TrEMBL record:
Keywords: Signal. Gene3D superfamilies: Glutaredoxin. InterPro entries: ScsC_N, Thiol:disulfide_interchange, Thioredoxin-like_fold, Thioredoxin-like_sf, Thioredoxin_domain. Pfam families: ScsC_N, Thioredoxin_4. It comes from Micavibrio aeruginosavorus EPB. This is 27 kDa outer membrane protein, putative. Residues 49-254 form the Thioredoxin domain. The keyword RNA-binding does not apply. The keyword Transmembrane helix does not apply. Residues 1-30 form the signal peptide. CDD domains: DsbA_Com1_like.
């Protein structure tokens, strides 16, 4: 067991003790600050000790519940932030969009071109966009894994300035191995882009500002890894697979139907 695990268990045990003491304090004759004598405190400690030794699963149940409660609190806090950041997430002109611009379900994804799970997620999103014409897909470059991630994001956004973001994005998500700048330029050439202009745009202040803005937004929302999704107002961390994504999309549509 790690030190942090021991610390959590100790904290839970203390909490159990505190709750038990509070319960005794509700008894009328034990309502004062000095309600327990030394012998009573010792007896109470023995009772709690014996109970936990006979029912050790209680500690693990308490730890598990505490973790679930913490995770839910984080999700709730993130949902509140999403509401305040909707325009930055879904309506920022600097963020490329695919699918139906007026789709009832809006999916924003934070991704890195060196992230293996992001590549799997791209395949899923391509299928969703092909089969579901009521989805708006907002693409947010979030290069955090390496310098080549940052380079790829710059070239993707530069391609977007010539109207070919999604095409470049698709090619980058299908690449394997270490990316090289010449390779990205070759992709641009294959897509019919003005490569010299793309190189200039990749190093432009506008592109740098967009990437910085994306990273700042992710930090504000508590997103620290990729892929990270926001589906309408629901945060989704990590890779869910095609069926998982389709299930959440269906849930979001059901919520919209209830509102109507």
């Amino acid at each position: 067991m790690t030190f942090s695990s021991k610390l959590r268990l100790s904290a839970v045990a203390v909490s159990v003790l505190a709750v038990s003491v509070a319960g005794f304090a509700l008894v009328p004759h034990a309502a004062t600050k000095d309600a327990f004598t030394a012998d009573q405190k010792a007896a109470l400690n023995d009772i709690i000790h014996d109970y936990l030794m006979e029912n050790p699963q209680v500690i693990m149940e308490a730890v598990a519940k505490h973790q679930v409660d913490q995770e839910q609190a984080q999700v709730d806090a993130m949902k509140d932030l999403i509401v305040t950041k909707k325009d930055a997430l879904f309506n920022d002109a600097g963020k490329p969009v695919a699918g139906n611009p007026k789709g009832s379900v809006v999916i924003a994804e934070f991704y890195d071109y060196n992230c293996g799970y992001c590549k799997h997620a791209f395949s899923d999103m391509a299928q969703i966009l092909e089969s579901d014409k009521d989805v708006k897909f907002v693409m947010i470059d979030f290069p955090i894994l390496s310098e080549t991630s940052h380079m790829a994001a710059k070239y993707a956004l530069a391609a977007g300035k010539q109207g070919k973001y999604f095409e470049m994005h698709s090619r980058l998500m299908k690449l394997s191995g270490q990316m090289r700048e010449e390779q990205l330029q070759d992709i641009g050439k294959d897509l019919g882009l003005d490569v010299e202009q793309m190189k200039k745009d990749a190093d432009s202040a506008d592109v740098a500002k967009q990437i910085e803005s994306n990273i700042a937004l992710a930090r504000e929302l508590g997103i620290s890894g990729t892929p990270g999704f926001i589906i309408n107002e629901t945060p989704v961390r990590g890779y869910l697979g095609l069926e998982g994504m389709q299930s959440i999309i269906a849930e979001e549509r059901a919520k919209l139907t209830k509102k109507d």
